[in-house]
Amino acid sequence: FPRHPSDRGQGESPHQDRVPRAFIQAVFSRRRSMHVSLSALIAVTAAVALPWRTLAFTSSVAPLLRTHQASTSPLSRALCGSSAMGGACQSMIRTATPSRKRSVVVLQMADDTFATCKVTANKEAAEGLRLITVDVGSLSSDYKVPGQYVKMRKDDAMEKPGFFAIASAPAASPKAFDFLIKRTDGSAWLCDTAEGGEVEVSTVQGPGYRYAEKFGADIEEVIVLATGSGIAPLKAAIESKGLKGKKVRLYYGCKTPSSCAFTAEIPSWEKDCGATVVQCFSQVTSDLPKGARKGYVQAAVMEDGIASPSKTGVLFCGVNDMVKQAKEALEEAGVKSETENMLQNFPRLNS
After folding, report:
1. Rounded (5°) CA angle 41-47-52
2. How many alpha carbons lie under 13 Å from residue 253 in its C-beta half-sphere?
3. Looking at per-residue confidence, does 117 or 288 come out higher?
4. How far is 37 from 29, CA to CA, in rounded Å?
5. Residue of higher predicted confidence among 55 and 180
6. How far apart are CA 315 and CA 334, in angstroms?
7. 168: pLDDT strictly greater than 60
8. 168 with 177: CB under 8 angstroms?
9. Given a cut of 70, is residue 214 above it in pLDDT?
10. Using alpha carbons only, how large is the chain's radius of gyration in Å?
11. Alpha carbon distances (Å) from 347 to 44, 255, 342, 350
């Protein structure tokens, strides 16, 4: 382990420690379970003591390692440092060649494991949106909480996989996930993957909407705010029926009616799932659908008011401006902060 600075000889660099202090901080600062952090620490500590090639092909260590971040990973930088010695270390990592067709180098967490899966359906859900169903096989068993998501990529040559929220409720289909995908430069490859095509899907990730844990009997009303493709994980939450017994108001915002997905499901959400749905259109130029409003969801919810702020929970998913403005308005109205009663499926609000 790293020595205390007072134990170093004059002129010695922290990079001369056998395991740099920065590495220890990098391992334990990550929000991972303790057993993963300890496994990471043991693996890299072993790396310092063992020849690189021995480490690279040790079967018990190999599943923790990956190649494409060898020179940029914080753990790799911390392990090797930035000195000339560090450069040699990085070189050894990049050039290690296994006897089998794979090279292994820096720590990989379990959530970066991918499986090849088949697209079983791909159809238009609304203007600019595709509803894609993927047969994920045994990966479906890890989907427990609405709001969880997966990473998807075309193949292992894709450096940055996309994050996609699951639109179907847990257990809605034994081995398939639905995804609502907005066409962008980063998702065009997925939107264009035809039925029968293959994609690579990670294990299920994220805490999801932990309302079963956060929203106790004291929470009587749940405000649900969605814009655009952000309706996907909230559809899963509503259709899971885990909010039944509470008053649920869904404010669903789109630019125009033609860009609004799942409109055919709205009557079922109201009748079978107990939600009151308010559609909001920001750019509508013709007559509004019955019951819909012109404007933004954050304005509509404040127009309707919050009867009992201390007894209200909120679920978000959508563009950052909506989330930020709605959060500020709801907090001002007396709804408790995001760590208690306001939940978002991606971790940035669920600390």
Report:
1. 155
2. 22
3. 117
4. 9
5. 180
6. 16
7. yes
8. yes
9. yes
10. 24
11. 27, 26, 12, 5
Which DSSP state fits 205?
B
Q: Is 262 exposed, middle or buried (0-12, 13-18, 19+ CB in 10 A)?
A: buried
The whole-number pLDDT of residue 1 equals: 40
Q: Indicate whether this model's pTM tops 0.85.
A: no
CA distance 110 to 252: 35
The set of residues, in sequence order, having a beta carbon less than 8 Å from that of 38 and lying 6+ positions away, is none
- Write out pLDDT tens, residues 41-97: 554 454 444 443 333 333 333 333 333 444 444 444 444 444 433 444 444 444 444
Q: How far is the CA of 257 from the CAs of 220, 264, 318, 326, in angstroms?
A: 31, 12, 17, 22
pLDDT in tens, 336-347: 876 679 999 875
**What does the alpha-carbon distance between residue 220 and residue 308 come to, in Å, rounded to a whole number?**
8
Q: How far apart are CA 262 and CA 309, in angstroms?
A: 29
Structural tokens at position 43 = 């693996």
CA 215 to CA 157: how far, in whole Å?
42
Q: Side-chain half-sphere of 68: how many Cα atoms within 13 Å?
A: 7
**CB-CB contact of 53 with 94 (8 Å):** no
Residue 345 confidence (pLDDT): 87
CA 163 – CA 152 distance, rounded (Å):
7
Residue 348: pLDDT band with limits 50, 70, 90: low
Structure tokens at 44: 């890299």
53, two tokens: 């090639």
Neighbouring CB atoms inside 10 A of 136's CB total 24
Beta-strand runs (E) in the chain: 65-66, 106-107, 114-126, 129-135, 149-153, 162-165, 176-182, 198-202, 221-227, 247-254, 275-281, 293-294, 312-317, 342-344
Backbone angles phi, psi at 24, to 5 degrees: -60, -45
Question: Which tokens belong to 12?
Answer: 């010695």
Pairing mode, strands 114-126 and 129-135: antiparallel
**Closest by Cα among 299, 301, 277, 297 to 289:** 277
